[in-house]
Amino acid sequence: MVDTGLTREQVIDALRPVQDPEIGRSLVDLGMIKDVAIEGGRVHVHVELTTPACPLRGRIETDVRNAVTALPGVSEVSVQFSARVRAAGSGMPDRQPLPGVKNTIAVASGKGGVGKSTVAVNLAIALAQDGASVGLLDADVYGPSIPIMMGVSHRPTMRDGKIVPLDAFGVKVMSVGFILDPEKALIWRGPLVSQLISQFLSDVDWGELDYLVIDLPPGTGDAQLTLVQRIPLSGAVIVTTPQDVALADAVKGLAMFREVKTTILGIIENMSYFVCPHCGGRSEIFGFGGGERTATRHDVPLLGQIPLEGSIRQGGDIGFPIVVSDPDSAPAVAFREAARQAAARLAVEAARKPRRPRIMLRPTT
Questions:
Q1: Are 181 and 72 in contact (CB under 8 A)?
Q2: Is there a binding annotation on residue 131?
Q3: Which domain holds residue 290?
Q4: Is 112 annotated as a binding residue?
Q5: What percent of the chain clears pLDDT 90, i.e. is strictly above it?
Q6: Could you identify which of 177, 181, 310, 343 might form a hypothetical disulfide with 144, taking C-beta atoms 3.0 to 4.6 angstroms apart as the criterion?
Q7: What is the pTM of this model?
Q8: How many domains does the chain divide into?
C-alpha cells in the first residue's frame, strides 16, 4: 500500500466547502461528517444525514466525492450514509415536546373531502419505508378513518399504565376509532375533543419516534384551533385540491397555523389530474395549477401534486395504502417525494438551532 501522506485533517478541510443543499451550511459545521478513514489512495467518508428520507442524498454523495477526489494522491472515494433525525421543536417555546418524539407533523385541510387522511397515511408509511421511526395519530374525531386505511381494527393494549399503539406497515398507529363506537356520532364540544386528544398524546407509549404524523379534523373551527394550540407541533402540511373553493379553505388553514406560530412545511395538492387508463389523455378534473399558485402567493413550498387514481381509493378501502400496494405507481412516487420534502423542511428548521459540530477522528499513528 502506497503512503500518499494524506491526512484526515486535509480531507476534512476539503469537505468544509461542501454544503447540505437544503440547509445551506457546511456538512462539517453541521456535524454531518462522522468519520474519515484513509488507506493509501482510498478514502472512506461517513456522512450522517439529517433524515433517512433525504431527497438530495445523491447530490450530497456527488459533492463529497468531487471534493475528496480533487486532493492529490486520491484514487478512490467511498461514501457511507447513516441518518439521525434532529428535533425541530414546536413554534411555541412554552409548549413541552412529547417524550421520545422528535418531530410532530400536523396534516390538515381547510375543508373535508380533499383526501387529507389518505395523504396522512401515505406520508407516514413513506417516511417509515425510508428508514425513519414513525407514529400516526388519528385525531380526526369526527371521522376516524385511519383504522380502515391501515388495516387495523382491534383495540390496543395497556402496558405500565400506558396505551400501546398498534403497528401497521412499520408505523405505530393510534386512533380515536379504536375506542369510539363506529355506529355512533361523536357529539362533543371543542374542549372535550381537545381533552381527548391531549390524553392520547400523554397516555400513549409512543417510544422513540423521529416523526409523529397527526391527522387533524378538517376545518378551522374551535375544535381545530384548540387542538393546534395544545399539541406541540413541529410543522404542518396543508392538503387541498386544485379547485378554487378548496383553495380558499386551504388559505384559512394556513392562516390558522401562522396564528399559532407553527411552521408550514408546505402544501400538497391532491387529485391534481387524472390520466385515462385507456387513451393516456390527461384531464385536470378539479382545475389546474391552483396549489402551485397558492403556495407561491403565500411563500410556502408545494410539496407534491398527487394524481387522481382509483387505486388510491381501493388501497385505502382494503387497508393497503398505495405506497405499499403499488410502490412504483405515479401516486406512490409522488407521496414519497412529498414526504421527503417535508422531512427536509423539518431538517432545515432543526438546523437553525445552534449546535456544536461533532467530528469523529481517529488519532494519527
A1: no
A2: no
A3: 101-327
A4: yes
A5: 53
A6: 177
A7: 0.89
A8: 2
